[in-house]
Amino acid sequence: MAQKASPYAIRVGYNQIWNNCYFSEGKRDRINWLEKDKLIREYFRLALPNVVRLRIDYGTSNIFIYLYISEIHLILGENNEKLNKIIRDVYKIINDDKVAVKINLIEVKKIYTHAQSVANLIAEQLQKRLFSGMVLRNVLSKLLLERGEVKGAKIQIKGRLDGSEIAQTKKVIQGKVPLSTIDSNIEVGRAEVVTTYGKIGIKVLIYKGKIWQKKSHYKGKIWQKKSHANT
Question: How many CB atoms lie within 10 A of CB 33?
């Protein structure tokens, strides 16, 4: 039977890095870190749905949270009130005063070059009950303007689109998206929209080219040396 794997998961350790990193002393310690990581990620998914990427590094006395977001002022608020509230909520989840929580905000300037940001934009527009076909056309027109970085894209949405009685799937592909080649730089973005008709799933794949360039014509140079020696 056909097997489907995450384009990100199969490239972790090859050309992708982990979204969380921690060092545990034993099995029980590792389970505790995984439980805390799940709770923290669920909190940020509900509190900040527009986050492009969330990376967390756990240490013995520190937790570093890296938030990739397009609009940093949405997190800061007036006099950093929202940011301080987020830190307090994270402390409640961890329930350990000995661990210091530090949040690093990283601004994402080109939102159409990141798969998760594109998925978030599509989710916002579908939430406003815009027609799915128009939303997909608008997103593809924006992706065409980023040809220097975006080599190809694939967008797929599933559910009761536009209030239809039967669930359907709409898929659009721009350029090439080689999922089978491991050295491809592919980003994955997923989002969900809850409407009065039901839940709509969104999946975005963006191809940014190869991680490593092709090797030089080394064999041709060897052949030229051999031919010169034979003469």
Answer: 17
User: Domain range for residue 135?
Assistant: 111-210
pLDDT at 3: 62
Shared domain check, 192 and 157: yes
CB atoms within 10 A of CB 11: 19
Q: What is the CATH number of the domain that holds 156?
A: 3.30.1140.32
pTM for this entry: 0.79
Q: Total structural domains in the chain? A: 2
User: pLDDT tens digits, residue range 148-181?
Assistant: 889 999 999 999 998 888 999 999 998 888 888 8
**Whether 50 contacts 71, CB under 8 Å:** yes
126 residue type, one letter: L
Cα gap 145→148, rounded to integer Å? 8
Q: Which three-class secondary structure state does DSSP give residue 127?
A: helix
